[in-house]
Amino acid sequence: MLKKLFAIFAAVILSAVTVISLMHEGAAIKTMADMSVPLPVLMYHSVVDDESLSGMYIITPEQFENDIKYLYSRGYNTVSIEQLIGYVEHDEELPENPVLLTFDDGCYNNYAYVLPILERYEARAVFNIVGEFTDEYTQNGEINPLYSYMRWTEVYRLFRNPHVEIGNHSYGFHYLVNGRKGAGRKWNESKDAYKKLFYEDTSLVQDEAESITGFKPIIYTYPFGEYTKESEEILHEMGFKASLCCTEGMNYITHDPECLFLLKRWNRSGEVSTEEFFDEIGI
Question: What predicted TM-score, i.e. pTM, was given to this entire model?
Fold first, then answer.
């Protein structure tokens, strides 16, 4: 009789422990899910005030303004990389429905047309500069929203503007040349040679930015989205906090700093309307 009672008691205890364990497991899963914040990242390029020129990588200022209005009307809030870092590393609060806006190449028209819209709507964005282009137009002094790139003068002003962050988009990797695509590694290139080249190219922008503006970018944006395991290792070693690629899809932000690397982005083509674009990507 005692053996039977003991067996029943043991079974009850085991059942209780199992239930409690499952409850804890469920709570842990829920906590992890609660900490995961969906983050759509949009990728823009040139913004030209001529609708006839709109294309895969060119939109009009009106289209961009419509995008901002659309996002705000659906409860989205533009955020900065700094805010994302604050959430990831220090558990600081993020606004509801965050969205990250990025502009590649450092086109002068981003400064001329995009910045006023960001300021008007209290929005934020990342402008990714190509060091070689910035140097070229700093030297020749050309200012034309159709084709020129920002000079270091504009970059310095943007560094001081609360609506903009500056990203490093490489110094001289914005080409498809000699078997290399962007910052990718050539098939016949040794790891050591590649790492040396990537480090030196990245450092050129970092060093110029620091000497001219007093700041170093903490965001690296891969030309053509081409990256390698080695390039990511170097960015970590250099103190970068985030990297952007061109793979399309949703990002999920957690308290793991790695979630800010190789952020996916949707390219904003000027060939579709605001409604069509956001319907396509599902936000």
Answer: 0.87
Closest to 171 measured CA to CA, from 137, 146, 196, 208: 208
The DSSP code sequence of 176-232 is EETTEETTPPPTT--HHHHHHHHHHHHHHHHHHHHHHHS----EEE-GGG---HHHH
CA angle, residues 65, 67, 73, in degrees to nearest 5? 105
DSSP 103-142: EEETBHHIIIIIHHHHHHTT--EEEEE-HHHHHHHHHH--
Which amino acid would we find at residue 8?
A: I
Burial class (CB in 10 A: 0-12, 13-18, 19+), 275: exposed
Containing 5, the helix (H) or strand (E) segment is: helix 2-35
Helices (H) and strands (E) in the chain, counts: 10, 14
DSSP state of 96: S
Residue pLDDT tens, the chain, 283 long: 444 434 443 443 444 433 334 344 443 333 444 569 999 999 999 999 999 999 999 999 999 999 999 999 999 999 999 999 999 999 999 999 999 999 999 999 999 999 999 999 999 999 999 999 999 999 999 999 999 999 999 999 999 999 999 999 999 999 888 889 999 999 999 999 999 999 999 999 999 999 999 999 999 999 999 999 999 999 999 999 999 999 999 999 999 999 999 999 999 999 999 999 999 999 9
Q: Which two tokens stand for residue 11?
A: 């079974």
Pairing of strands 46-47, 41-44: unpaired
Q: Which two tokens stand for residue 128?
A: 């990714």
The domains of the chain are located at 1-35, 38-281
> Tell me, which fold does domain 38-281 have in CATH?
TIM Barrel (3.20.20)
Other Cβ atoms less than 10 A from the Cβ of 13: the count is 10
Euclidean distance between CA atoms 20 and 43, whole angstroms: 46
